[in-house]
Prior knowledge:
The structure is a homotetramer. Chain A is an alpha/beta fold. In chain A, 29% of the residues lie in helices and 23% in strands. In chain A, the strands form 3 sheets. Chain A has a 7-stranded mixed β-sheet with strand order 8-11-7-12-15-14-13. The longest helix of chain A is centred in the middle third of the chain and has 17 residues, at 148-164. The mean pLDDT of chain A is 97. Chains in contact: A-B, A-C, A-D, B-C, B-D, C-D. The interface between A and B is large, with 40 and 40 residues.
Amino acid sequence: MEQRIPVGILGATGTVGQRFIQLLEHHPWFEVAWVAASDRSSGKTYAEACKWKLNTAMPEKVARLMVSAASPESAPKLVFASVDAAIAKEMEPQFAAAGKIVITNSSAFRMHEQVPLIIPEVNADHLKMVEQQEWRRSGGCIVTNGNCSAIGLVTALAPLHEEFGLEKVFVVTMQAISGAGYPGVASLDILGNVVPYIAKEEEKMEEEAKKMLGRMNGKGVLPADFAISAQCNRVAVEDGHTESVSVKLAKKASADEIIAAWNEFRGQTASLALPSAPQQVVFYDAAPDRPQPRLDVNRGNGMTASVGRLRPCNLLDWKFTVLSHNVIRGAAGAALLNAELMKAKGYLD
Amino acid sequence: MEQRIPVGILGATGTVGQRFIQLLEHHPWFEVAWVAASDRSSGKTYAEACKWKLNTAMPEKVARLMVSAASPESAPKLVFASVDAAIAKEMEPQFAAAGKIVITNSSAFRMHEQVPLIIPEVNADHLKMVEQQEWRRSGGCIVTNGNCSAIGLVTALAPLHEEFGLEKVFVVTMQAISGAGYPGVASLDILGNVVPYIAKEEEKMEEEAKKMLGRMNGKGVLPADFAISAQCNRVAVEDGHTESVSVKLAKKASADEIIAAWNEFRGQTASLALPSAPQQVVFYDAAPDRPQPRLDVNRGNGMTASVGRLRPCNLLDWKFTVLSHNVIRGAAGAALLNAELMKAKGYLD
Amino acid sequence: MEQRIPVGILGATGTVGQRFIQLLEHHPWFEVAWVAASDRSSGKTYAEACKWKLNTAMPEKVARLMVSAASPESAPKLVFASVDAAIAKEMEPQFAAAGKIVITNSSAFRMHEQVPLIIPEVNADHLKMVEQQEWRRSGGCIVTNGNCSAIGLVTALAPLHEEFGLEKVFVVTMQAISGAGYPGVASLDILGNVVPYIAKEEEKMEEEAKKMLGRMNGKGVLPADFAISAQCNRVAVEDGHTESVSVKLAKKASADEIIAAWNEFRGQTASLALPSAPQQVVFYDAAPDRPQPRLDVNRGNGMTASVGRLRPCNLLDWKFTVLSHNVIRGAAGAALLNAELMKAKGYLD
Amino acid sequence: MEQRIPVGILGATGTVGQRFIQLLEHHPWFEVAWVAASDRSSGKTYAEACKWKLNTAMPEKVARLMVSAASPESAPKLVFASVDAAIAKEMEPQFAAAGKIVITNSSAFRMHEQVPLIIPEVNADHLKMVEQQEWRRSGGCIVTNGNCSAIGLVTALAPLHEEFGLEKVFVVTMQAISGAGYPGVASLDILGNVVPYIAKEEEKMEEEAKKMLGRMNGKGVLPADFAISAQCNRVAVEDGHTESVSVKLAKKASADEIIAAWNEFRGQTASLALPSAPQQVVFYDAAPDRPQPRLDVNRGNGMTASVGRLRPCNLLDWKFTVLSHNVIRGAAGAALLNAELMKAKGYLD
């Protein structure tokens, strides 16, 4: 293996931070060289600071890293971030202004008009929005990925929007507990239960979906103009957001045409050979009772959106179920793929 | 307590059959006098034949009853039923033809044009459909209640339909495992999982909702003419179907008007003092994260539909969450309330 | 109903505090008149301060109470407490010194040599230990109940110890999440999982069991001298601690004799007619696969210990399974029964 | 890859059968060439006959295999089996008599005095028991592995028995639902519950542990002579049996000595380089709250027994927790390792 590019992780001890570290362990391009977390962790090794909650071992090299303070001085050029929105709002511009390329899963800047909100297969072209950012003067920038519930939906909608044009989208989610981080959802709240509310989630899904499926218009993005209504629920699932979706299309399409659009979708990264891109971006499962989190969440190493149960809808045109891994495709894997896109596009040279 | 009316239970050892027996234990009007189940149970006492799965003790009187063969000869006049559709299709007409009043939770005759599909508060007037039934000549009849997922929905929709007129209804369900009976859903299929499919459930919800909210038209029912699209999912909840709903109304209504319609709804049984009718048919909970199965399923002894999260919908007018107890309001309690309605209306005299 | 005795609740918004309020709602002797919680709650009504997590409605009278500061000035004579051990250690003596009768579920003083650790049916006679307490001079005292996992075990062991003499006890617990309070156990830690560790739990079980089954010796208690080894696990159960137990007895006993000892056990409160005492203190279930939390936890309104699966042990004499409700018999109900005992014994006159 | 040895699977559509197929997909020595299941599956392809329940895709080559009748005519020389005991009792001798090497997870012949019950690292030397089998005349034999709950225990006990000598063993299990196959445990029985009973499980654990840890004595095995008492519970975990264990040793040992015995244990296969043998047979985790199924079940690709929480026991010497994967180390992986042992020992030449 050639020399790998050193990367940093902001929020390294959290649920998504741990996934960054897991996904980067054997990465061909990047290597974790710097981890930062809240002040109470600094001065400790990562192994001491982190309550590791994944079912693979903590990578030994990272275990021995000292946790740095969350400031850009010592950070490498490329920094992955996943921190609370309020913290991100302050901290991410500091890193960008200091010349760092901030690839963030935090929500603070997703809807900022100069910040791209990227799913590489869907809207890699939005990346050029970064050119407007004042932070570019120092070589830095901020690039975001969507909310964990929005990414799975948009990945499944993109082929339909491209081929047939979306007019209306109705979506109800059944979201996994890992989406709330750790400790996150109290067990007394979710064991044998459904919680029909996740703060700000419906708003994020609705606005982010339109931005991600929007078109570049000069230097900015013109949001897609379909109507969308989201309802978000929490269920007792560890990983994987399941979504019941109904859509109205501008151009009528048969079931076969829709399924073909999904299975054949390669998107804007088809020629780029990004290491974390799944072979199949969207997989349509013809079985009557799929997708299911327990069986399908890890398809494509957690990067494939699984779709099933396509059938006519009495109100709109078609209804179907989408499943995607909320911590991989919906968070850490999403950011990683964004970083790979940036490297492929020359931003890291 | 006066002499109570003897009643029989067809399918007495099943999940719903056990609930009939639990709910009838201290009932002021009815007393379980006859239990029938499949052939392999006959000749045993109920205690021997039944794998009791409720968290209250099996009533001692019922425990000692001998399980009868499932034929009408020995059955009392009033028979509650909950058996597989295929069995119900054969057996329920035999009981009705033999002069029995069959109050059934089975699905076989729900959509039969001479059979009423009743939620007493919503459409007690449909009961007179029984007059058309040929079985009435011998004094028998068949009266049904809806599918467990349809009843909660329709109970919440009824006040809106009455006050404002329904035009469109979207519903996505998250249904409890008890809805599938026992042994029903395998634990490997649902622990930490969502299954996005329940056979025939979406079709039942869609067609039953329209029949229940329809209007009497001569001797029959004219189904309500709103459009409805249902998507049904199974989740790891013991009791209580949660439903994310969106509606379009003919007459525009404010949130306050809608909430008032729910909280003030008394329906067609307001003056009847039916023992199992809840004080509040629909309860609107203003908390941001309710209703939830674990906390709200037993409201009104499991007979109240809980509603929450009323908010505007970008596609239709309003969206909200409904919860109701699938085995009580959605099955055994539903049938029991139907029987109480029939007694109040003089059918048992 | 006569005038009821006003009582206070320290830690009123916690998991056990809420249970106190639920259990006291229709209590014949006591009435909640004062609620206290942490500083951030004071100045609010109970309804505002408390995230109510029980599946029955918050009692309206209590909902309207203002939350008091946690100091004895305004408190009634009888105060129920359930707070963190560190807080209890400071606060409970203040209340006792101010003349309050503190009936506490907190662990701070359970092993204090002047403080009784009571299960009324088992060791009501230990109550006279309070006479030694210096707080008695002002009319106050502290009375404790055991850890939630110890109470179920000791309730099942008491009839055996009394009849046959315990020599050795081996116990492995599978404990419910509600035992950790709210938010308590993170859902990511327990959904589909077992956690083989609960801090200090094994030590508490071992030492408390011996004190509770000990004998009065002068003014103090001589701990019972059997050997006991406990292993404690957390499982994904809402309420109800299940325990696999094995025992060696001084006097050999047959299965029938042991079952009779359990079923006939009435204990030291047989003649007292305490309102919360269950008709059956220990219930032996002869079914091969019981007791189970889902089916049996509420037996005797959550105050009965359920026992099953008595069979010979290859190492000691007998093995069996015990289940008891950790928040009722194991916490709030335990303290309530202690208060009832004190009233019956004249301590509240 | 060289030509691989064709193998057959008896009971190929079951929970363990599916695991055989998953584990064999990329196996360096063996290749699935024949699958058999119950009569209703024969004439179908494996893909048609099998309700695949694993979260990796069904291997394509196996998907296209026709399901054979369960008779030895068409079977390859080496056959893996996992079928109900009653079926195994008839069928496995037929295969062995027809010259097949039957490596079985079924329980029928585990305690047969001519049949070895093998964990290769623990008792590879027991394999020579097959020489007594009359089926050897035709070249066939039966080799078994232990019950899923016994294997994890024995793997953890073996280093202690070897180094210090076991005298007494207490064990309480918390077993995963996958141990009961599919559909197996009904969701209504286990969601949020503990079931303190698994038919015949305690007996199997007790007798199999002694046989596996026994010594060859002439042509047979002399069971180890420690005393053992097992209590078995089912919990809501998908994969991984957790066991609370307490032991008395003949030779006193310190915690460090015990931990060293575990971590350094290589067993009887150290020199054989079996492909499915884990690098670490037993892994001691020093964290205070481990092992846990969710985090540790897949250690060593599901072949390592994880141990933790070693601490003194008030009754015996030491107590600790063991976790092992019940379907891999406890069933399919166990049989596969047995087959690898047989190949390494020349039985397949």
